[in-house]
Design goal:
Length: 146
């Protein structure tokens, strides 16, 4: 009897894993650059995981000269992925911000507060030596849930 129960539990677990894998969908906004080694976003059930975005414009790949404009473009890129996944900034539950200079925190935060309204998502902000995006000073990734 124990062996039969064990097989039934194993079968149920496999079915739930298969259902979860089938529920995973790649989310890509129309202007997202092709050929990247990662997905812009992954929608798993009702949760959207957005890859880290820098301030490089999707169409031109240019980085703004002004830091606040870089943060705005970074958040616009995140917003495009959220929109492609049927969500917006009000659905964001967690944010991770990476800054190449932690002294830029207040300037980043001033732009951030214009985008994220109450109740604001959880957030982690860290200083890093360098980002993968050439010339990037900020990278932001989010998790959103309907």
């Amino acid at each position: 009897m124990l062996n039969l129960m064990s097989k039934m539990v194993g079968c149920a677990l496999m079915l739930s894993l298969c259902a979860a894998a089938a529920d995973k969908k790649i989310v890509t906004p129309k202007d997202f650059p092709a050929g990247r080694p990662f997905s812009a976003g992954i929608l798993a059930g009702d949760t959207l995981y957005v890859s880290g975005q820098t301030g490089a414009d999707f169409k031109t790949a240019k980085m703004p000269d002004n830091f606040e404009d870089e943060v705005r473009q970074c958040l616009n890129n995140v917003g495009s992925i959220l929109q492609a996944g049927g969500m917006d900034f009000s659905d964001v539950v967690a944010v991770q911000v990476y800054l190449t200079d932690i002294d830029l925190f207040q300037r980043m935060n001033a732009v951030y507060l214009q985008v994220f309204k109450e109740p604001r998502p959880t957030r982690t902000t860290v200083g890093v030596a360098k980002l993968a995006g050439a010339g990037a000073h900020v990278e932001i990734t989010v998790t959103a849930r309907k």
